[in-house]
Automatic annotation (TrEMBL):
InterPro entries: MFS_dom, MFS_STP/MST-like_plant, MFS_sugar_transport-like, MFS_trans_sf, STP/PLT_plant, Sugar/inositol_transpt, Sugar_transporter_CS. It is found in: Membrane. Keywords: Membrane, Sugar transport, Symport, Transmembrane, Transmembrane helix, Transport. This is Major facilitator superfamily (MFS) profile domain-containing protein. One of its GO terms (cellular component) is membrane. The lineage of its organism: Eukaryota, Viridiplantae, Streptophyta, Embryophyta, Tracheophyta. NCBIfam families: SP.
Length: 492
């Protein structure tokens, strides 16, 4: 691929420009690294009436399903240090090893404790992979395609979920070993990542950060397809020198407590909280039931997995195409409007047509079709916005001195709120019933307001220029920089 690019460092004509080509090697590295998302997605998918709303209100089931996320939460902090000391590539390799071990233990589990240990290993693999892969993708990408390359991670997550749902369906018919085949299937993407990672490079930033300056330059020339990388390499070296100087004075996690770190920290954590509060779980939970009401009966689960999973995958591709053209904010705001309409409409139809205490109740097929369409509308908007951008934005907005530590906060926040939602969701469904859709609709209004007021646009900004070109220029976040005695700074 020979398309050239020249990205201005500040937008001013007198500043040096980044030169190079969008090389096939960058895309190959990106695709291999994004396989970490395939592992994560497969595990998500492999893990989902007395009453139409309370069929699975079992705390033990919820705790087992959610336990992986607690292991991933704890592992993300360890992975932050591993990323800094050993590099993004080695951290992804470690993730694949933990995932291979976990899938083997789960598939061969002779008892519950062995199964739990397997789940913990999978969780550690998720924590390491989700920490390293998005950072790797953001650091190797040219600024103007950083969004598209990074979203390969989320695309693999959606593919993993779809594959796992189909595997679940067919494995359920294989007795008594079907569940072992399904759990053991996680080893396939893990093996692909491990073998593929042997062929990819480390990021130039990580190499320079660890003192391998010459190797960092050679790598940058290789991934840019040109020897004219002085401007970009000088910026990477400057960022690494500043990071080393600042981290010699104060450790990264302590620096995250400083006022100048508040903008990316708040944005990173908020994106993870909001991603889990979109209500995507509520709609995906109902999909099989709705397909069954349309007359598909036993095939309802498979059909819903294929339809909603397919929409999820295709819409993530839409995000890859649009994110670096229209920007992050527009995708998020458009999605909020689309999700709000879908949530309210689905909630209204469910309130009227699904009776909680009548396990055999169904709705008119026309209404069922309407809800299926609304679900697809909702899933598509999530898939091209809050799904992928929840990982992209935190991976690109931290300065190097706090990048791995800051992104570990994002990963751990995602795992924590995934755990909380997974643990509480089914009980909430019992209590709120169809009104749970209105609960999530309120969250969507909050999310949209947050984006309009506090989220800056980061499209096309080189990753090491976020502080100067984004945070210091934002109407609110610029208060976090400058003289500590300035009253505006203290209001940050």
């Amino acid at each position: 691929m020979a398309a050239g690019f020249a990205v201005s460092k500040s937008g001013a004509a007198d500043r040096p420009q980044f030169k190079g080509r969008i090389t096939w090697y960058v895309w190959i590295c990106g695709i291999i690294a994004a396989t970490s998302g395939l592992m994560f997605g497969y595990d998500i998918g492999i893990s989902a009436k007395e009453n139409n709303y309370c069929k699975f209100d079992d705390q033990r089931l919820q705790l087992f399903t959610s336990s992986l996320y607690l292991a991933a939460l704890a592992a993300s902090f360890v992975a932050s240090r591993v990323c800094t000391r050993f590099g993004r590539k080695r951290t992804m390799q470690a993730a694949s090893v933990f995932f291979l071990a976990g899938s083997g233990l789960c598939a061969g589990a002779a008892n519950l404790p062995m199964l739990i240990v397997g789940r913990v290993c999978l969780g550690v693999g998720v924590g390491f992979g989700n920490q390293a892969a998005p950072l790797f993708l953001s650091e190797i990408a040219p600024a103007h395609i950083r969004g598209a390359l990074n979203i390969l991670f989320q695309l693999n997550v959606t593919i993993g979920i779809l594959v796992a749902n189909v595997v679940n369906y067919f494995a359920s018919a294989v007795h008594p070993l079907g569940w072992r085949y399904a759990l053991g299937g996680a080893a396939v993407p893990a093996a692909v990542l491990f073998l593929g990672s042997l062929a990819i490079t480390e990021t130039p930033t990580s190499l320079v950060e660890r003192g391998k300056v010459d190797a960092g330059r050679r790598t940058l020339e290789k991934i840019r397809g040109t020897g004219e990388v002085d401007a970009e390499f000088d910026e990477i070296r400057s960022a690494c020198d500043l990071a080393a100087e600042l981290n010699a004075e104060e450790r990264p996690y302590r620096r995250l407590l400083r006022r100048e770190s508040r903008p990316p920290v708040v944005i990173a954590v908020a994106m993870q909280v909001f991603q889990q509060c979109t209500g995507i779980n509520a709609l995906m939970f109902y999909a099989p039931v709705l397909f069954q009401t349309m007359g598909f009966e036993a095939d309802g689960s498979l059909l819903s997995a294929v339809v909603t999973g397919g929409v999820n995958v295709v819409s993530t591709v839409v995000s890859i195409v649009l994110v670096d053209r229209v920007g992050r904010r527009k995708l998020l705001l458009e999605a909020c409007a689309q999700m709000l309409v879908a949530q309210v409409a689905v909630g209204g139809i469910m309130v009227v047509h699904v009776k909680a205490d009548d396990a055999g109740s169904t709705m008119n097929s026309a209404w069922a079709v309407a809800i299926v369409v609304l679900i697809c509308v909702y899933v598509s908007s999530f898939a091209w916005s809050w799904g992928p951008l929840g990982w992209l934005i935190p991976s690109e907005t931290f300065p190097l001195e706090t990048r791995t530590a800051g992104f570990s906060l994002a990963v751990s926040s995602n795992m924590l709120f995934t755990f909380l939602i997974a643990q509480a969701f089914l009980s909430m469904m019992c209590t709120l019933r169809a009104f749970i859709f209105f609960f999530f609709a309120v969250w969507i209004v909050v999310m949209g307001t947050f984006v309009m007021v506090l989220l800056p646009e980061t499209k096309g900004v080189p990753i090491d220029e976020m502080v100067e070109r984004v945070w210091r220029r934002h109407w609110f976040w610029k208060r976090c920089f400058g003289d500590a005695n300035d009253a505006r700074v203290n209001n940050c």
